[in-house]
Design a protein that fits this description.
binds phenylalanine
Length: about 450
């Protein structure tokens, strides 16, 4: 049982800190670029609002009523098939820690970039590209060093627990992150490139929406609001009594979407304004952006440092939430001390993360590539495209069908009021059907 609970604002910031992460600032802009903009953004937005928000309430509810780790909460709330529902919780716990295997490596790159930008910026995109690719494929030592720093920071925060570690971290970093991202956005607003960025992100060109883009957009919607791993569930187990889950979900989803759009618009404005080739793929913020910052002159130097600091903050607050479900699981299931659990869970992503790191390098690439993807990309794909939507589907089915309606209603009636039936309908029918269609598409059973 938990003793220390979040404060109200602490919970909102921690849940928002979980949601706002590398997904928003690193991944969203580059996949939007990769999949052609507008139509992709629209599918993502529709999924977040229509399905994501609905399931977010359900996920919070499981933690809030279950009061245990992911697996334990499912088990204690399930009227029947307890052992099977426990597995749904386990799926999320594993998804979180598997995401961490590459997430921590990327946070490491960001730390490295903070250090690098302190001294100089690349004078052109090609120079930036060479630098990034060199780091990625040759500099094993550098990546290893910063992945280790990332591991140490995350483990030491988690050891301090919900109140002293996670809440404190978010209370400081989240407001700073919002200030930095807003300042850059307001600057972008004054540039001509802004209208091009706006068109790129919001004028849908449906011909660009391949079925792969569709699946990626749905998967990303889950990833970005932290759905399906039990991160939000685990935090919700430490909610103060009488919390308004609907309001909290709304704030978290709104903040996350707001920051993703803000980051996307800012980055694309800069890219259009300074004519940098939007480098496709994960290198976008590490290649195109530094070259653009160089073009901006002195202001660019300041922006570059602030940007990578904001990115590091976003990454760290999400990383603790990705690892916490495993930490809490170890505490609840094996009665380990929190510090022991924090170290064990972190060690797992640290060690497996080394494999992810090596799989991008020239020396080990071949060894660590399986089929079409290397280990790093597989971790990303399996978690974001498969495990999270599946985890979300199981949460929807659990609250929609397995839990007694009376219990769900009792917990939500004050906050949802007459909207309850609508939400319940979305949860029981629209969300699961949409997710099953997406999964069948992913498996190649149907295509559109
Ligand atoms: N939402 C985080 C991001 O956008 C990642 C995350 C996924 C965190 C799932 C927790 C659970 O980067």
């Amino acid at each position: 049982m938990k003793i220390a609970r979040f404060s109200r604002i602490g919970f909102i910031l921690a849940a928002a800190g979980s949601a706002v992460g590398l997904g928003n600032i690193w991944k969203f802009p580059y996949i939007t670029g990769e999949y052609g903009g507008g139509a992709f953004v629209l599918v993502y937005l529709m999924t977040v609002i229509g399905i994501g928000f609905t399931i977010m309430i359900a996920e919070m509810l499981i933690g809030y009523l279950g009061r245990l780790d992911g697996a334990g909460s499912f088990e204690s709330l399930a009227p029947r098939f307890k052992a099977q529902w426990r597995l749904a919780g386990m799926l999320g716990i594993w998804a979180g820690i598997l995401i961490m295997t590459f997430y921590s490596v990327v946070i490491g790159w960001i730390f490295h970039y903070i250090v690098v930008t302190l001294s100089s910026l690349p004078a052109s995109v090609s120079e930036a590209e060479t630098t990034f690719n060199h780091m990625l494929s040759e500099e094993i030592g550098t990546q290893f060093l910063f992945h280790t720093v990332s591991f140490l920071i995350i483990a030491s925060i988690l050891m301090r627990g919900i109140k002293g570690g996670i809440e404190k971290l978010n209370l400081v970093l989240m407001p700073l992150l919002i200030v930095i991202m807003s300042a850059m956005f307001f600057y972008a607003l004054t540039l001509d490139g802004f209208s091009l960025a706006w068109d790129f992100m919001f004028k849908p060109d449906w011909s660009k929406l391949s079925s792969d883009a569709f699946v990626t957009a749905v998967g990303h919607a889950f990833f970005t609001i932290s759905l399906g791993t039990g991160a939000i569930l685990t935090y919700s187990a430490s909610l103060p009594k009488k919390s308004n889950l609907v309001q909290s979900s709304l704030i978290v989803v709104a903040l996350d979407t707001g920051i993703a759009l803000l980051a996307g618009l800012t980055l694309f404005t800069f890219l259009y304004q300074y004519g940098a080739e939007p480098a496709k793929g994960p290198g976008l913020v590490f290649i195109s952006l530094p070259a653009v910052f160089y073009e901006m002159g002195v202001l660019g130097n300041v922006f570059a440092i602030l940007f990578f600091i904001a990115l590091a903050f976003a990454g760290l607050t999400s990383a603790v939430s990705l690892t916490e479900p495993m930490v809490q699981y170890l505490v609840d299931k094996f009665s380990f001390k929190r510090s022991t659990s924090a170290i064990l869970a972190s060690l797992f992503f640290y060690l497996v993360g080394i494999i992810a790191l090596l799989s991008n390098t020239t020396d080990y690439k071949e060894l660590l590539t399986f089929g079409s993807r290397n280990f790093f990309d597989w971790m990303d794909y399996i978690t974001a495209a498969i495990m999270l939507p599946l985890g979300g589907l199981l949460m929807a089915l659990f609250v929609g069908y397995a839990m007694p309606k009376t219990q769900v209603y009792a917990a939500l009636k004050d906050s949802l009021g007459r909207g309850f039936e609508f939400w319940y309908f979305m949860l029981r029918y629209i969300a699961p059907i949409s997710l099953v269609v997406v999964m069948l598409n992913l498996l190649g059973i149907i295509s559109f």
